Amino acid sequence: MGEPFPSLRLRLPGETLMNLRALSPEQSRKLAIGLLFFAVIAAVAAVAVPVWLANRHYDRALADMTDRLERYTRLAATRPEIAKQLESIRARDVRRYFLRAGGAALSAAEVQEAVRVGIESNGGKLIAIQVPASKEDGRYRQVSVNVQLTANIEALRKIMHRIENGTPVLFIDNLTVRSQVPSTFKPQPGGEPEMFVQFDLYGYSLAGA
After folding, report:
1. Under the phi-then-psi rule, with left for phi > 0, alpha for psi from -120 to 50, and beta for the rest, what region is 204?
2. CA-to-CA distance for 11 and 176, rounded, in angstroms?
3. 97-206 has which CATH code?
4. From the centroid of its chain, how far is CA 192?
5. Does the predicted model carry a pTM greater than 0.70?
6. Residues 131-161: pLDDT tens digits?
7. Is 16 exposed, middle or buried (0-12, 13-18, 19+ CB in 10 A)?
8. What residue spans define the domains of the chain?
9. Is the torsion defined by CA of 100, 106, 112, 117 positive or negative?
């Protein structure tokens, strides 16, 4: 009766040794050469692979450093132009864009005068100006006024342009425009209806000046 599982028969070390002893001298020599070849390949791989990985890492690091150096060089080349622009800015009288130095009441009076002139010189009618409390913001003080007026669309356009392009610099916020005539109103040729306009107007002064 044959073995039940011949394919699962294990080869014992003693049998392997006997098979090796049964090899001819030529076969033994070829086996030794093959083992030596694989041993050399394994030794070379053990040394070459880490060296190759290290070289790739350093190549990437060198490429990154080269790229940074090129960017810093380009940035350094712009330094004279930047310095020239800074000198140009310092030479300007930037204080003229701020409200007059002094207390909040003085700055608020300057804003009121600017908006009054802007409205009355462009065909509007000033109704009221209210002055809320100013706001301190570090070196700067924000001074605001609330303005109410009436004007037609053309006069309002001129008033807005005058305020936003004047000196000192003033900013318009919370603008509300309401019609004062019914929707069925038909103006005469060349005439525009008056509108009610309300907005906040603010500027900045140098708090420590």
Report:
1. beta
2. 98
3. 3.30.70.60
4. 45
5. no
6. 998 888 778 889 999 999 999 999 999 999 9
7. exposed
8. 13-92, 97-206
9. negative
